[in-house]
Design brief:
By secondary structure, the protein is an alpha/beta fold. It contains 15 helices and 18 strands. Strand 7, helix 7 and strand 8 form a beta-alpha-beta unit. Helix 3 runs parallel beside helix 9 and helix 9 packs across helix 10. The radius of gyration is 22 Å and the shape is globular. The N and C termini lie far apart (50 Å).
């Protein structure tokens, strides 16, 4: 089937991103625009429109209004998703040769930026939920232990990255974390792609946004946690640790010189929705409905895990001995399309559209799947990666990425240095980064991960040639 025909097809109950739920929750202004003549909105950078890097025109004015409304110093719209703006932000806060502290659950785009910017990622491990195989939210005490692990042998760190919340909705207390990092003299970038709704302040039970906690740069994905079209995002800047000119220079390197006027308009509409009373009331209603649904499903006997974001519904399929990947296949065949299948869980994004009959449908499919696929024993606990709390590649990441590589099987990889990301998709979080040396315990852990992820992890992967590393 062609892509064009496929896009016309239904997918059952869409419980995946983007959060506008196939248009149901698009802002009214965006719906009106999309109902104009086909292609009417496909315009170049006319003087009246401008672009995210122009200081005149409608885009510039919209960015100023958005920054004022949310309380930031500056903002830039992005049309290459959170990926493009995370990369922009990381390059803006560093210079070639710097080292950056970042968590193991950072998105692969940040590792790729380390190649582009000749940076060293100093990766810290995270608390781990062994029953479901998820990295937990970072705590201040955990971060303090990480900081105490820094020695003279550690590459000199000049900046730091945080992820808040995780893909599944686990959130930290960002105030304490950002303060600890600022005390080190580092600027802080927060990947808040899945938490733009935290910044609306409409619900005291939602986690606090990093914008309210003093982060220097914050990236929001407007299609993951707002009502924007796919590829829309925004980068917020505040404080004086980073020169806005550096941000604009980096954005000029990474963003197209022909940004889509439709996507830029979607950025504006999604943010205006947060600042309007109608949009804020809609979000409040969705949060109330999401919490009620989760409680109802628990009452129905479904193992719904607790997270900090009510709009993420995480089904613990491992409790009946079924992997999230197999559960996803079952659900999809029966008209329910999830967002994120993982070895022991299946995550659904409730989004901002109205839901009717969802409780009944979930209950019906869960009971049927349990009867057909369920096992007497739950899945075993999932071990965390056998790595130090703080580590960094033993080989320069850019060298490992660009070298002439060799393909080896896992059982032949001991002592070799990875030359590529090992990264099951989704969500795009690397298990191994280029330049990391693979010891026996790490190899055994990777072999176990392959059993869990199946074809999403290849049997062979690229390593640096021995003569290069010697």
């Amino acid at each position: 089937m062609s892509l064009t025909k496929l896009l016309h097809c239904g997918v059952g109950q869409p419980l995946f991103l983007p959060a506008h739920q196939r248009g149901k929750a698009l802002p009214q202004a965006m719906r009106r625009l999309l109902h104009t003549s086909p292609g009417w909105w496909d315009l170049p950078e006319l003087r009246q429109i401008g672009s995210p890097l122009e200081h005149n025109g409608a885009v510039a004015e919209s960015q100023i209004r958005a920054a004022d409304a949310i309380g930031a110093d500056r903002c830039w719209f992005g049309v290459n998703g959170a990926t493009g703006l995370l990369q922009t932000a990381l390059l803006a806060m560093t210079t070639p040769g710097d080292a950056v502290l970042m968590p193991r659950n950072c998105h692969k785009s940040l590792i790729q930026t380390c190649v582009l910017g000749d940076l060293t990622p100093v990766l810290f491990d995270l608390p781990y939920k062994h029953d479901r195989g998820h990295a937990d939210a970072l705590t201040a005490s955990w971060l303090q232990t990480v900081l105490k692990s820094i020695t003279e042998a550690t590459p000199t760190i000049t900046a730091a990255v945080l992820v808040h919340p995780t893909y599944q909705g686990y959130a930290s207390q960002p105030d304490e974390l950002i303060n600890l990092l600022h005390q080190q003299g580092w600027a802080v970038l927060v990947d808040e792609a899945h938490g733009s709704h935290f910044a609306t302040d409409v619900d005291p039970n939602l986690p606090k946004s990093s914008l309210r906690s003093g982060a220097d740069l914050v990236v929001h994905s407007l299609h993951k946690s707002a009502t924007g079209l796919t590829q829309t995002a925004v980068l917020w800047h505040q404080g004086n640790r980073i020169d806005p000119a550096w941000i604009e220079r980096s954005l000029g390197w990474l963003q197209t010189t022909s940004p889509s006027a439709l996507l830029l308009a979607s950025c504006e509409c999604a943010l205006q929705e947060w600042f309007s009373q109608t949009g804020r009331n809609q979000l409040r209603r969705r949060l109330v409905q999401a919490r009620a649904l989760q409680n109802q499903l628990r009452d129905d006997g479904l193992p719904i895990l607790s997270t900090d974001d009510p709009l993420k519904l995480v089904l613990h399929t491992g409790t009946i001995g079924v992997t999230g990947l197999n559960a996803d296949s079952w659900m999809l065949q029966h008209g329910v399309a999830a967002e994120l299948p993982e070895p022991a869980t299946l995550t659904f994004c409730l989004g901002y559209g109205t839901r009717r009959g969802l409780r009944r449908r979930f209950k019906k499919q869960w009971d049927a799947m349990k009867a057909k696929l369920g096992q007497e024993q739950p899945l075993p606990l999932i071990p965390s990666p056998p790595i130090p709390k703080l580590s960094w590649p033993s080989e320069k990441l850019s060298n490992a990425w660009r070298c002439r590589s060799e393909l080896v099987r896992f059982d032949h990889a001991e002592g070799r240095i990875a030359a590529e990301l090992v990264c099951p998709y989704p969500p795009g979080i690397p298990l191994v980064v280029p330049g990391e040396k693979l010891d026996l315990k790490r190899i055994q852990w990777m072999q176990y991960q392959k059993q869990l992820w199946g074809e999403q992890i290849q049997s062979q992967f690229k390593v640096m040639p021995i003569e290069v590393t010697n």
